[in-house]
Amino acid sequence: MTLQEAARILTDRRSVLTMLGASALLGLPELGYAGAQIEEPLADAVRNAMSAAVSSGDPPEPVFADTEARLHYLRWKVEMNTRLVARKSDLKTLQHRDEFLQTLWYNCKRAKLDVAMVLGLIQVESNFRQFAVSSVGARGYMQVMPFWARSIGDGDANTLFQMKLNLRFGSVILRHYLNLEQDNQFMALGRYNGSRGKPAYPDAVQGARRHWEFSV
Asked: How do residues 162-179 score in pLDDT, each as one tens digit?
């Protein structure tokens, strides 16, 4: 990285912090530091499958193959709750954190996503702020772009601030990008951020991922 690039990144981050402070003072949704997913044409079959996935009324109730799998999940949830508290996230209450973690786990397993990677993505995208809005309009925990509400949802971008819907949209979109990139996480994460082929964003997510790994 050159000195000029480092200076530009520092300036960008200071600008973001300034905007965050202004948002708080004005009572506006907190700004997220996110890139811009690119709206790409979807084949009808893909659009229909994604639309069905985000509109499913299934409750986020995890299903386990055996008792040990359920115990692993419960241990994971206790540990992740502790880590969220340590981060002083906007998930203030135990009930809110429990609901968030259960919904996240359910959607990750449903979409065959690595839970630690998705937590890393959320950390980078919104720092666990439910009402974060990026400079390009991406919304919520997983910074979902409004065009997705029109493309595969009911058209109401405001619903992307709802925790369960945001996590479901984000998981379905990330799975879509992984499918496009044949499970190449580097390229799929770049698509998610609108910076396909560039290392900064995938590296940031994978770096954050390490904070959320769990193997006990």
From this structure: 999 999 999 999 999 999
Among 81-85, 153-157, 174-178, the range scoring the smallest mean pLDDT is: 153-157
Q: How far apart are CA 197 and CA 191, in angstroms?
A: 8
CA atoms in the 13 A half-sphere facing the CB of 160:
30
Write down the pLDDT at residue 32: 56
**Residue-range domains of the chain with CATH:** 33-212 (1.10.530)
pTM greater than 0.85: no
